[in-house]
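Board work, copied verbatim: Mitochondrial pyruvate carrier
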Amino acid sequence: MSSNKLLTFWNHPTGPKTIHFWAPTFKWGISIANIADFSNYNMKNWNLFIVNFAMARTGLYQLSRKIKQN
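↓ predict structure ↓
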């Protein structure tokens, strides 16, 4: 990757210096951890369970708002 492209990426309005880049990155991390936890039927990480539950609920709520709008 050329330094010009790297600099353009770095200074982009939604680049790695902003929350717009890191929020989805961390959400993907949580989703991957959730998938990795499928094989663990005995949930030991309650913090991860609660976060996943909250994300599912808020996602379903947003989806219901979108469906009602259309």
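The chain has a mean pLDDT of 86.
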